[in-house]
């Protein structure tokens, strides 16, 4: 049996030959790109690629067929990306053109003041997020998340603020469902520390509370505390601030709200218990959305909405592209598409500078892997 050092030397020799052939293949691909440019052909040729992947499996030993297919798919992906870099493809480059136009017209500095719409009423966590985004926001309120989207979409406010996810309770599913129904772009995100307090009228006692009101996410985030109050009825309402306002206006000493400390001062309530969330490191991530795409300097995160082809390996091929381009995946969320049985919209947050060549390559080539693709913007996260 050969020594380990000898086997490794043989592998190094084979690898050297592989990379020599890889370079040779890339040079031939340049000729393919030139031919396609001359004859007005698109880079992506699905029939050709399927044939190549099938042929790779047929050429390999039975126990290596899957690996041969993966290898060929990676080679085809590298070749396609190379051709896009040399040639480009008008049909696949719409998102890239949108990015370039937005970067050219977006101011260098994010605005200090703007008209911003939030869901709920005064004291909502969305208001806190809006004041994190803007130093001097003019804030108006909508009773629903759908209303926030519509207000921005119709140009009745410059920006909207919406919750995306919570570190304890997870994604705000209703917001993600509405994303597929509206036209918008993400221009900033931030994380707000969430401390829930049980607020009631002055003089009320914990033992006398019979009804508690709050938003569904806040209720989920305080599940352990609420489980210790078996005789209390819990009611879902639109917003934690709405809950506090409702309790204040009710005049009932047996009603309480799970809400923020600022809402106690705002609505004249007292805190029966403070910080009743299950976890102390409880954060909600908010997005600032706009009608038109704005990409400010320093944007290093992007959001995408994608419907994949309903076929084996579709998600793998997309994830492989992120891996090949060294793009970090921050979030992957799937939501069912209404009236389309067992089909899903995938929401991606990725970490990659909007000005980088890797991100440009992604935008110019991702369309070939998807049934539908929406670029939702590039942005920075405010700390």
UniProtKB/TrEMBL annotation:
<keyword id="KW-0413">Isomerase</keyword>
<dbReference type="GO" id="GO:0046417">
    <property type="term" value="P:chorismate metabolic process"/>
</dbReference>
<dbReference type="InterPro" id="IPR036263">
    <property type="entry name" value="Chorismate_II_sf"/>
</dbReference>
<comment type="function">
    <text>Catalyzes the Claisen rearrangement of chorismate to prephenate and the decarboxylation/dehydration of prephenate to phenylpyruvate.</text>
</comment>
<feature type="domain" description="ACT">
    <location>
        <begin position="303"/>
        <end position="380"/>
    </location>
</feature>
<keyword id="KW-0584">Phenylalanine biosynthesis</keyword>
<dbReference type="GO" id="GO:0004106">
    <property type="term" value="F:chorismate mutase activity"/>
</dbReference>
<dbReference type="InterPro" id="IPR002912">
    <property type="entry name" value="ACT_dom"/>
</dbReference>
<protein>
    <recommendedName>
        <fullName>Bifunctional chorismate mutase/prephenate dehydratase</fullName>
        <ecNumber>4.2.1.51</ecNumber>
    </recommendedName>
</protein>
<comment type="pathway">
    <text>Metabolic intermediate biosynthesis; prephenate biosynthesis; prephenate from chorismate: step 1/1.</text>
</comment>
<dbReference type="Pfam" id="PF01817">
    <property type="entry name" value="CM_2"/>
</dbReference>
<dbReference type="GO" id="GO:0009094">
    <property type="term" value="P:L-phenylalanine biosynthetic process"/>
</dbReference>
<comment type="pathway">
    <text>Amino-acid biosynthesis; L-phenylalanine biosynthesis; phenylpyruvate from prephenate: step 1/1.</text>
</comment>
<dbReference type="Pfam" id="PF00800">
    <property type="entry name" value="PDT"/>
</dbReference>
<feature type="binding site">
    <location>
        <position position="79"/>
    </location>
    <ligand>
        <name>substrate</name>
    </ligand>
</feature>
<dbReference type="InterPro" id="IPR045865">
    <property type="entry name" value="ACT-like_dom_sf"/>
</dbReference>
<keyword id="KW-0963">Cytoplasm</keyword>
<feature type="binding site">
    <location>
        <position position="36"/>
    </location>
    <ligand>
        <name>substrate</name>
    </ligand>
</feature>
<feature type="domain" description="Chorismate mutase">
    <location>
        <begin position="1"/>
        <end position="87"/>
    </location>
</feature>
<feature type="domain" description="Prephenate dehydratase">
    <location>
        <begin position="115"/>
        <end position="291"/>
    </location>
</feature>
<dbReference type="InterPro" id="IPR036979">
    <property type="entry name" value="CM_dom_sf"/>
</dbReference>
<dbReference type="InterPro" id="IPR001086">
    <property type="entry name" value="Preph_deHydtase"/>
</dbReference>
<keyword id="KW-0057">Aromatic amino acid biosynthesis</keyword>
<feature type="binding site">
    <location>
        <position position="45"/>
    </location>
    <ligand>
        <name>substrate</name>
    </ligand>
</feature>
<dbReference type="InterPro" id="IPR002701">
    <property type="entry name" value="CM_II_prokaryot"/>
</dbReference>
<feature type="binding site">
    <location>
        <position position="49"/>
    </location>
    <ligand>
        <name>substrate</name>
    </ligand>
</feature>
<dbReference type="GO" id="GO:0004664">
    <property type="term" value="F:prephenate dehydratase activity"/>
</dbReference>
<keyword id="KW-0456">Lyase</keyword>
<feature type="binding site">
    <location>
        <position position="83"/>
    </location>
    <ligand>
        <name>substrate</name>
    </ligand>
</feature>
<dbReference type="InterPro" id="IPR008242">
    <property type="entry name" value="Chor_mutase/pphenate_deHydtase"/>
</dbReference>
<keyword id="KW-0511">Multifunctional enzyme</keyword>
<feature type="binding site">
    <location>
        <position position="25"/>
    </location>
    <ligand>
        <name>substrate</name>
    </ligand>
</feature>
<keyword id="KW-0028">Amino-acid biosynthesis</keyword>
<feature type="binding site">
    <location>
        <position position="8"/>
    </location>
    <ligand>
        <name>substrate</name>
    </ligand>
</feature>
<feature type="site" description="Essential for prephenate dehydratase activity">
    <location>
        <position position="284"/>
    </location>
</feature>
<dbReference type="GO" id="GO:0005737">
    <property type="term" value="C:cytoplasm"/>
</dbReference>
């Amino acid at each position: 049996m050969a020594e380990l050092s000898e086997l490794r030397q043989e592998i190094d020799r084979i690898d050297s030959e592989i990379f020599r052939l890889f370079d040779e293949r890339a040079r031939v691909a340049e000729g393919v790109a030139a031919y396609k440019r001359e004859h007005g052909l698109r880079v992506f040729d699905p029939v050709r690629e399927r044939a190549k992947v099938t042929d790779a499996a047929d050429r390999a030993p039975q126990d290596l067929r899957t690996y041969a297919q993966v290898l060929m798919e990676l080679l085809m992906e590298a070749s396609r990306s190379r051709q896009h870099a040399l040639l480009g493809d008008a049909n696949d480059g719409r998102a890239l053109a949108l990015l370039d136009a937005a970067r050219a017209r977006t101011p260098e500095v994010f605005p200090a003041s703007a008209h911003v719409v939030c869901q709920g009423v005064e004291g909502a966590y969305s208001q806190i997020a809006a004041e994190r985004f803007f130093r001097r926001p003019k804030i108006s309120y909508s009773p629903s998340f759908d209303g926030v989207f519509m207000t921005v979409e119709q140009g009745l406010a410059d920006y909207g603020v919406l919750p995306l996810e919570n570190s304890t309770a997870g994604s705000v599913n209703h917001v993600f469902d509405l994303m597929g129904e509206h036209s918008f772009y993400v221009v900033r995100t931030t994380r707000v520390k969430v401390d829930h307090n049980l607020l009631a009228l002055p003089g009320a006692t914990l033992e006398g509370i019979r009804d508690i009101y709050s938003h569904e996410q806040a209720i989920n985030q305080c599940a352990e505390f609420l489980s210790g109050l078996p005789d209390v009825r819990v009611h879902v309402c639109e917003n934690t601030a709405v809950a506090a306002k409702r309790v204040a206006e009710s005049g009932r000493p047996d009603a309480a709200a799970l809400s923020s400390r600022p809402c106690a001062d705002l609505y004249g309530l007292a805190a029966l218990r403070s910080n009743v969330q299950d976890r102390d490191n409880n954060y909600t991530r908010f997005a600032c959305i706009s009608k038109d795409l704005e990409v400010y300097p320093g944007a290093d995160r992007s959001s995408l909405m994608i419907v994949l082809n309903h076929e084996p390996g579709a998600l793998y091929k997309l994830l492989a592209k992120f891996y090949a381009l060294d793009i970090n995946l921050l979030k992957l969320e799937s939501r069912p598409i209404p009236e389309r049985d067992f089909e899903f919209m995938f929401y991606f947050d990725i970490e990659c500078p909007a000005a980088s060549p890797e991100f440009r390559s992604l935008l110019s080539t991702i369309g070939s892997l998807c049934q539908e693709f929406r670029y939702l913007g590039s942005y920075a996260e405010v700390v």
